[in-house]
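[agent] plan:
  1. take the single chain provided in the ticket
  2. run structure prediction with default settings
  3. attach structure tokens to the ticket
  4. add a short note for the reviewer (M.T.)
[agent] executing step 1
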Amino acid sequence: MIYCGIDWAEKTHDVALVDDTSQLLAKRHITDDATGYKILLDLLTEYGDTAQNPIPVAIETSRGLLVAVLRTGSRQVFAINPMAAARYRDRHSVSRKKSDPGDALVLANILRTDTHAHRPLPNDSDLGRAITVLARAQQDATWNRQQISNQLRSLLREYYPSALAAFDPWRNGLCRREAHELLKATPTPTRAARLTRVQLQAALKRAGRQRGIEADAERLREVFRADWAHQPALVEDALGKQMLALLLQLEAACTAADQLAEAVEEAFPRHPDAEIILSFPGLGIQLGARVLAELGDDRTRFADARGLKAYTGSSPITRASGKKSSITRRWVKNDRLNAVGYLWAFSSITASPGAKAHYRRRRDHGDWHASAQRNLFNRMIGQLYHCLQHGQLFDEAVAFHEGSVAAQATAA
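[agent] step 2 finished; step 3 output follows
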């Protein structure tokens, strides 16, 4: 067997090939372009890389054009965690020396000695990988929008509390177009207090409002003209300029999140697994796409449901040493899927009688709200694994048999 290790960088990469005896067979320094990729593929071919017997490759990333080139055909690519690679490096040198060619050699030896302890990148379909890109981008845009919205709210509290009071009745107030139009028209509370009913109605119409304009304009006028504390005039104007700059970022984040959500709504329903995922209570298109993005559609990626639960961070972990033993939640997990899990569990409580009964049992057992939700997510993700493996839709009676029996007894 021949093993390949690649220490990647922005412009160049170091490649090392070793055999079963850890002998260095070849090393190359290639550029990050089509020419460098060809040199790498030719080097692998020279040492026996074929479609029937490909050379496995270890690299410290799972993304990029280099990885895409390596994944052509049946070749296995192992994305090694950089922290794990650093621990392996200490096995070869106690002086803690480090070099790029040396790191490539370490990565190749990781596959030589511990291939069984690392998993290759899943063999997902092109549509599945495209949905992964879109769903993760939409999730990042949503998080970015919320972060900027929180910054804007904090800034408005310093000098413009009337704006927060005016937007409070609106759902997602600071992210709405009406709020953006009003803040652009009146960046300071002094200017907001001078707005007339006509100006307020015009701002709402520019934002796309078609109903309730007169009533909302009257309410906004009363809020802006109420008695509020003010910063000094110069300070207020400076804060207004800072707010407008932050508002531009928020508008861009809102637009990006909305456009990516539309792209997800277009791509996700075309995937064969979409029907099964959407059959689960609490999962819509956006959350369902995020679940598929992290699970992938390679059925061999997880050996069993326990492995998937550990990957999501929903199952507890036991730490035992001597006479001491503790059971805690997992800290090393897929953070994206774990974040989806809390939203999924929260939504399923109202969408599924069985899920609600399971949640109530955990609370009565003494779990806190977050712990009960995590336990519910742990059960739901296990059921999803079963349904995907067997091509079955979610069945409430089968998934929560004890909850259905309890509900029927209560009704009787």
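[agent] step 4 note for reviewer: The first strand starts at residue 3 and ends at 8.
[agent] ticket updated
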